C-alpha cells in the first residue's frame, strides 16, 4: 500500500541530545514537508522540499535541520538548539502542481525530559 | 506571501443543527485551498479542496465549502451536525507553483452536543 511512514510513533530523549525523526513515502511525490503541532497553534511549517538535494526553511526552522538525499526520504533532526522540542511532529508529501493535496503520516510524538 | 486565518478556535453546536467554520485567506496569487479534519489521536484527513472549477465545493461526510474571492473566504459548512463530526478542522492554503509552501490555520475545534 502506498503511503507515508513516520517512525517511531513515540520518542523520548534527554535534554541536550539531538534526535532524528524518520519520514518515508512510497507515493513518488516530489514535495515533502515537516510540521510541528502544539495545542492551540495549529500546524507550523518547519521545513519543506520540492526536489532531491533542495529544501527551504519554513516558519519555525530554528533548531531543526533536514536532508533530502533520496526522493522517498525526508528525515528531520531536532537539535539541542531547539528551545522547546516537546511536540507532535507530522510529515507530509504531495505531488507538485496546482490544487494537489498533501498526504500525512501518523505523526511522531517527541518528549524531551 | 500567504496566510490563513480561522476566525474561531472553538465552535459548539447541537446535534442536528448547521455547522459553520470560518476561514479567510491571504495570497498574492490564485491559491489552492483545502479543509482537513483531525480526529483525536488520528492523522489528518482531506475533507475537500478548491480547484477553481466551481466556487461551491462538496467534500466527504456532507461538508461543503464556498470560495468567495471578493471576501477572500473559504468557509466550511454542513447542514446537520452529527456526533461523529466532533474533531479539529484546519483550513489550508497552498501556493500553486514554485516552492509550494503549504500553510495551515490554527484550527477550529468543533464540539457537538447531544
What does this structure look like?
The complex is a heterodimer of chains A (about 110) and B (about 110). In chain A, about 0% of the residues lie in helices and about 45% in strands. Chain A is mostly beta strands. In chain A, strand 4 and strand 5 (about 45-50) form a beta hairpin. Chain B contains no helices and twelve strands. Chain B has strands at about 1-5, 10-15, 20, 25, 30-40, 45-50, 55-60, 65-70, 75-80, 85-95, 100-105, 110-114. In chain B, strands 2, 5, 6, 10, 11 and 12 form a six-stranded mixed beta sheet that branches. In chain B, a hairpin with a 5-residue loop joins strand 5 (about 30-40) and strand 6. The interface between A and B is medium-sized, with 27 and 25 residues.
Number of alpha- plus pi-helical segments of chain A: 0
N-to-C series of helices and strands of chain B? EEEEEEEEEEEE
Number of helices of chain B: 0
Q: How big a fraction of the residues of chain A is strand?
A: over 45%
Task: Sketch the major β-sheet of chain B.
Answer: 6 strands, mixed
Mean pLDDT of chain B: 91
Distance between the termini of chain A: 36 Å
Low-confidence stretches of chain A: none
Main beta sheet of chain A: 7 strands, mixed
First-last Cα distance of chain B = 41 Å
What is the assembly state of the chains in this entry?
Answer: heterodimer
Most extensive interface, residues per chain? A-B, 27 and 25 residues
Q: Report the count of strand segments of chain B.
A: 12
Proportion of residues in helical segments of chain B: under 10%
Residue share in helix of chain A:
under 10%
Amino acid at each position: 500500500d502506498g503511503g507515508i511512514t513516520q517512525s517511531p510513533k513515540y520518542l523520548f530523549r534527554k535534554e541536550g541530545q539531538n534526535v532524528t525523526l524518520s519520514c518515508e513515502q512510497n507515493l513518488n511525490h516530489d514535495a515533502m514537508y515537516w510540521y510541528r503541532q502544539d495545542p492551540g497553534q495549529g500546524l507550523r511549517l518547519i521545513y519543506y522540499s520540492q526536489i532531491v538535494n533542495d529544501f527551504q526553511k519554513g516558519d519555525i526552522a530554528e533548531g531543526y535541520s533536514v536532508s533530502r538525499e533520496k526522493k522517498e526520504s525526508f528525515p528531520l533532526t531536532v537539535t539541542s538548539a531547539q528551545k522547546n522540542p516537546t511536540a507532535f511532529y507530522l510529515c507530509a508529501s504531495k505531488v507538485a502542481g496546482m490544487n494537489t493535496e498533501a498526504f500525512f503520516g501518523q505523526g511522531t510524538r517527541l518528549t524531551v525530559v | 506571501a500567504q496566510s490563513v486565518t480561522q476566525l474561531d478556535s472553538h465552535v459548539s453546536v447541537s446535534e442536528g443543527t448547521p455547522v459553520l467554520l470560518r476561514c479567510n485567506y491571504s495570497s498574492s496569487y490564485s491559491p489552492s485551498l483545502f479543509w482537513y479534519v483531525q480526529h483525536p489521536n488520528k492523522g489528518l484527513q482531506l475533507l475537500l479542496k478548491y480547484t477553481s472549477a466551481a466556487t461551491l465545493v462538496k467534500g466527504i461526510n456532507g461538508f461543503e465549502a464556498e470560495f468567495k474571492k471578493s471576501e477572500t473566504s473559504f468557509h466550511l459548512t454542513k447542514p446537520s451536525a452529527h456526533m461523529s463530526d466532533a474533531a479539529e478542522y484546519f483550513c489550508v492554503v497552498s501556493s500553486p507553483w514554485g516552492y509550494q509552501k503549504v500553510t495551515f490555520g490554527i484550527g477550529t475545534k468543533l464540539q457537538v452536543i447531544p
